Amino acid sequence: MEIIKPGINIDIVGRMKIAFVVSLSVIIISILSLLLHGGPNLGIDFAGGTLVQIKFSQETNADRIRDSLKTINLGNSVIQRFGYHDNNEFLIKTEKSSSALKGLSNRIEEALNSSYNKGDFEIRRVEVVGPKVGKDLREKGMLAMLYAVIGILIYVTWRFELRYAVGAVIALIHDVVITVGIFSLLGKEFTLPIIAALLTIIGYSLNDTIVVYDRIRENIKGIRKQSLKDIVNSSINQVLSRTVLTSVTTLLVVLALFIFGGAVIHDFAFALLVGILVGTYSSIFIASPTVLVWESISPSKEKRKK
User: Fold this and answer.
1) Which one, of 72, 230, 202, lies nearest residue 146 by Cα?
2) Which uninterrupted H or E stretch holds 9?
3) What is the pLDDT of residues 65-105, one digit of tens each?
């Protein structure tokens, strides 16, 4: 099965400058959003605090729940609907630690009994993360991504050349920054599952990039009369059908998770949706054209001999 017919010759390299401008603009918007919001909207996993999930049997709203819980003094808390509108599930998030909220589940149940009938609600989970644990998780998550990028730089340099490795790493950083920026723009929480999604995006994007790089290397060995620009362009066109087909089939699976997977993995699936789209774009318009930019700045030995 081929979405794109063989022999197609789209001038992808010729659109390199436009792609760079678009990417740079989106990255700047993402960084500005992060700066204006004081960084990502950290969830309980990283910021520390307490999270309570409550399921109601009848329609209610956050204001009514907040009024019911005034007696237990949750401090600077956030009450928001969890999942779809007809689920009647709510999350209560507070920055207070477990020591300040001892016996929280029982206290919330007693407070809610003043406004709701017994049996009209169910406390499904109570999660507590101390500030030190949150900080530790945050640092380890960042280190995991840093080590992944360093490992990729070493691997691609060993398998190809440094210019290819730089292109791959720039594309990966591009994907991660834009995904995090979109989360910041939409006000979505940054949690441990999102770190897992970002690492998955890095792996997926790298796989696409390696496929293109392999074809470029094969064509460089087999077609010596063409310029590197023409070789890169034809190589991308040759694997374009495979790249698009792989991305579409993967997107269908992730889209199914996003729609039917439930609220627990909703943000995780959303991050993958964004990452796959951006990763496919970067492997075509960022990673490979970056090799050309590198070549123009620091020509290879073959070009210097010519």
Assistant:
1) 202
2) none
3) 888 877 777 666 777 777 666 677 888 887 765 555 566 77
* Range list of H helices, 261-286: 266-282
Checking DSSP bridges between strand 189-190 and strand 41-42, what pairing results, if any?
parallel
Per-residue pLDDT tens digits for 6-41: 667 778 888 888 888 999 999 999 999 999 988 888
* The CATH classification of domain 49-129, taken from the options 3.40.30.10, 3.30.70.3220, 3.30.420.40, 3.40.50.300: 3.30.70.3220
pTM across the whole model: 0.80
- For the chain, where are the E strands, in sequence order? 41-42, 49-56, 77-81, 89-94, 121-129, 189-190
How far apart are alpha carbons 258 and 254 in whole angstroms?
A: 6
Give the residue among 119, 288, 120 at the shortest CA–CA distance from 220: 288
13-41+133-305 CATH pick, 3.40.30.10, 1.10.390.10, 1.20.1640.10, 3.20.20.70: 1.20.1640.10
Burial of 224-236, coded b for 16+ CB within 10 Å and e otherwise, reads: eeeebbebbbbbb
| Stretch(es) of the chain classified as CATH 1.20.1640.10 | 13-41+133-305
| Residue 63 three-state SS | helix
Tell me how crowded residue 263 is: count the other CB atoms within 10 A of its CB: 14
pLDDT reading at 166 higher than 60: yes
Place of tokens 């441990």: 192
Location of structure tokens 């050309």: 292
